[in-house]
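job 3f2a | input accepted
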Amino acid sequence: MSTVKKDYKRITTRSLVEMKSNGEKISMVTAYDYTMAQMVDKAGVDVILVGDSASNVMAGHETTLPITLDQMIYHASSVVRGAKRSLVVVDLPFGSYQSDPKEALRSAIRIMKESGGHSIKLEGGSEIKDSIKKILNAGIPVMGHLGLTPQSIYKFGTYTVRAKEEEEAQKLIKDALFLQKAGCFAVVLEKVPAKLAQQVAQQLTIPVIGIGAGKVDGQVLVVNDLLGMTHEFNPRFLRRYLNLHELITNAVGQYVSDVKEEDFPNENEQY
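job 3f2a | predicted structure (271 res):
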């Protein structure tokens, strides 16, 4: 299949659907602040996800559950100010949409109005259909998320690969088709078998973005993992492109040494 690469000055939800139909793969990374958003946007990333993974990598929590809607809005507004080309997708945090469709809509509206984000992402399929439909009916673009859904970690009890058994695999396919029919513009599949993910991607006309799901329409990674700022998280799907943990630690260590030994500041670094 030949790939047609179009030069997009600004990525939109429609751009992503066009990219899938043209055979162009979609790049997506997380960002949580203005400076990182500027850099990944300049690098040509198609989608910036303001993920609830900020709970882990920015705040040090064990899970994504503690992060609040106000905190997500803070991170998202910072990212939006740094992104000039990328589509900005913002996670709805745990507890802001699961039980009450009206609360889901209020949460989504707050993110769109107060952060300037371009769309929202939520986890789950038919079990949250009323929340999804209410948000979509308000004209807010929605990205779905199936497979391993970190907000349900205490239900699963583990971060292992999902949908390995036939019953769960069939439910995932059914949920993916539901999300498309409902009007979602894309779906993230996390930690599912590659063959299953490919099957889903072939059945959908909207893009399927994978993380630990093999080669589908696009890929997403947490930027702190991609850059090696984290060093203890080593899943099979992660490729580290830098070792910033070592580089930053060494650089700051050298600064500490220079201060202690009165090497910094030197004569050229004073007024």
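job 3f2a | The beta strands are 26-30, 47-50, 87-91, 119-121, 142-147, 186-190, 208-211, 218-221.
job 3f2a | closed
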